[in-house]
Amino acid sequence: MTEGTIERVATSTLLGWYEQMAVIRGTEQAAHDLFMRGLVKGTTHLAAGHEAVAVGASAALRPDDYVFATYRGHHHAIARGASPEGCLAELMQKATGVCKAKGGSMHLTQADHGMLGSYAIVGAHLPMAGGAAWSAKLRGTTQVAVAFFGDGATNIGAFHEALNLAAVWKLPVIFVCENNRYMEYTPIGAVTAVPNPAADRAAANGMPGVLVDGNDLIAVHDTMGSAVQRARAGDGPTVVEALTYRHFGHSRTDPATYRPAEEVEEWMARDPLIVARRTLLEFGATEADVDAADGRAADIVAAASQAAQAAPAADPDEAFTDVWADGGCAWRT
Amino acid sequence: MADLTPSTVTYRDAVADGIARELRRDPTVVCLGEDIGKAGGVFKTTVGLYDEFGAERIWDTPISEQAIMGAAMGAAMTGMRPVAEIMFSDFLACCWDYLANEIPKARYMTGGQVTVPLVVRTANGGGLGFGAQHSQSVENWTLTVPGLKIVAPSNPSDVVGLMASAIRSDDPVVFFEHKGLFASKGEAAPPGHVVPLGQARVAREGSDVTVVALAATVPLALSAADELSGEGISLEVIDLRCLIPLDMATVFRSLEKTSRLIVVEENPYQGGWGATVASIVADEGFEMLDAPVRRLAAENVPLPFADALEQRVIPTVDKLVEAVRRLTSY
Fold first, then answer.
1. Which of A1, A74, A265, B288 holds its CA 20 to 30 A away from the CA of B215?
2. Do A127 and B62 touch (CB under 8 A)?
3. Residue B65 appears among annotated catalytic residues
4. d(CA B38, CA B50)
5. Which B positions 94-113 lie with beta carbon below 8 A of chain A?
């Protein structure tokens, strides 16, 4: 293995990653279906189509590394070990939700797996990821931190402040942009001065910016692997811009009619699960192997959905816990 | 012969002393902010820290308030106890997202999965002729957000004791240092001095009127008390020290004696913290009162530059004396 290259993963490993992608896809579909049945309230920002970014990046990380995600973050929570049941239960306002039904779809968190939260104010978590990386550096560990964010976040101030500080302090952080071409409803290209909203801004902040096919699991994994190596070695931050596409609209209420049909068709043909299946066959897996992974994923999601639906609703008194570190909410003495 | 007079220090030096004591006792404490390192801070409140603790503990940042707050938050979530400086409290608006949406909510919205033990220090308040964007008292901004503890000391000893509690707190604390007090002097804090959060202090005992004050309005109230004592009016001055946790028990104990309350606050009347104190007294202590609750706050205009105009807007000793006279004659 030479510097900057990643060893080819074993077929069985790749099959495991594929299955994880299929679990995420199934969970997103379940979230959508449960919403349509009135069992999921509020809103959702589904990540179907983005699975390869989450799973490929996560596979390049250690269990003790840190991940910060956005309100479109179901895939990152699951990729970092949150259970589909806990996530769906959270969406359904159940006591067994990963955040005790106090977070909801936009704030899925699995801190014991280093997934330190999903943040719904665009760009706010980039400086936090820098802070977690700074902490790793101060404590003398070789942990890295990753911030996942959308293309829309590249035009907010916190993005630019975070990149500059990370470079100046040479922090072990990777800024991963999931560029799905639309900030919300507006094409990112219509509101951004450079063609590649994240990668093109990297040089201005003294760090490499790398473009990668975000629907190609292996490409994401290998690109992240190099960035993670660089960060662990103390060589500083990297911007990775992963080109991908959402299968649903921006949020629950958005049918995404602003996207040209031929564009949607082109990207659906490049569905990350289709790409990964093709790669698996090239790696020597059989169609039956991949179908079996799909079957296992479907079983996991079905069981998760059933268990989440059967779980007790959140206790209203839970509203008064977890404000302070002592577990309570007292504001007077 | 030993000098038995307690040594006096400035409020400014007490800030650096308070931080240094915690840096010495806990290796996870780390400071970040603009010009806080070799420069010692624009208000000289971090003088000596860089020399004693070095670049690994005292980090100079760019002018990036969002990056400062975000970095502090991320570090706090992962095992450190950051002390972040936002140079002027007016600049909290530049990183308001972190105080309004991120830091106070992370623990709650994750169902208690993360803790954010950090301190945000900031120079607050007027009286120095810095104009509309560098003179505000904005402690009321933070009071609007559940999930933040709010500290505003009035004297050097409390600066040290409250700094210890703030840095040791597992909850996020916003620590307002009053610009108008930096040069003021008071007793030095003894070794190991810790003042718990949420414990108000009776700064002067009295029997006729309770004055609830915070930070710079505490010495202001004490001056008014001196002046009014000559007229036979006895003020009890309560230094709240913290807005959250809010020590209303001490306020009520005082009202049992005085039955008259005036709150003196430097933030604007509209939305000022005194309104919260007054509403609690109205709700829970109405029968204790012999007169309406009065609030002396800043006028509802931006802070003007000229001394004469600024004094017209913010609370002064003369205004408090006059307000107390009116209240006692009710």
1. B288
2. no
3. yes
4. 6
5. 97-98, 101-102, 106-113
Which pLDDT tens digit goes with each residue over B196-235? 999 999 999 999 999 999 999 999 999 999 999 999 999 9
> How far, CA to CA in Å, does B165 sit from each of B143, B151, B242?
19, 10, 11
Please give the pLDDT value at position A5: 46
Per-residue pLDDT tens digits for A36-79 = 999 999 999 999 999 999 999 999 999 999 999 999 999 999 99
* CA end-to-end distance (rounded Å), chain A: 62
CATH of the domain at A185: 3.40.50.970
Do residue B227 and residue B273 come from a single domain? yes
Residue B164: per-residue pLDDT = 98
Closest by Cα among B125, B161, B116, B117 to B19: B161
Residue A45's domain spans which residues? 11-320
Q: pLDDT exceeding 90 applies to what percent of chain B?
A: 98
Instruction: Write out the two tokens for A273.
Output: 């699960």
Q: Do B70 and A112 touch (CB under 8 A)?
A: no
Flag whether residue A163 sits within 8 Å of chain B, measured between CB atoms. Answer: no
Q: Is the pLDDT of residue A2 over 60?
A: no
Token pair of A143, please? 């942990």
B113, B148, B276, B277: best to mutate for the A interface, most A CBs within 10 A: B113
Is B134 in the active site? yes
What pLDDT digit, counting tens, does each position of B35-91 carry?
999 999 999 999 999 999 999 999 999 999 999 999 999 999 999 999 999 999 999
Instruction: Verify cis geometry, omega within 30 degrees of 0, for the bond prior to B82.
Output: no
Q: What is the mean pLDDT of chain B?
A: 97
B82 within a domain of the structure (yes/no): yes
Of B101, B54, B59, the residue nearest B84 (C-alpha) = B59
Whether residues B78 and A321 touch (CB distance < 8 A) is answered with no
Q: Which of residues 32-61 of B touch A (CB under 8 A)?
A: 56, 59, 61
Give the domain range for residue B297: 201-328
Report yes or no on A27 lying in a domain: yes
Q: Does residue B113 register a pLDDT over 90? A: yes
Closest-approach residue (CA) in chain A for B100? A121
- Chain A residues touching B109 at Cβ < 8 A: 99, 102-104, 107, 109, 117
CATH code, domain carrying B312: 3.40.50.920
Q: Look up the CATH number of the domain holding residue B48.
A: 3.40.50.970
Decide if A158 and B170 are in contact by the 8 Å CB cutoff: no
Q: End of a domain among B141, B160, B187?
A: B187
> Which alpha helices (H) appear in A209-321, and where do they start and end?
217-232, 261-269, 272-282, 287-310
- Could you give the number of structural domains in chain A? 1
Interchain CB contacts (distance < 8 Å): A and B: 166
Does some domain include residue A332? no
Q: Please write the tens of the pLDDT for every residue from A131-142.
A: 999 999 999 999
Query: What span, in angstroms and rounded, lies between the C-alpha atoms of B228 and B166?
Result: 35
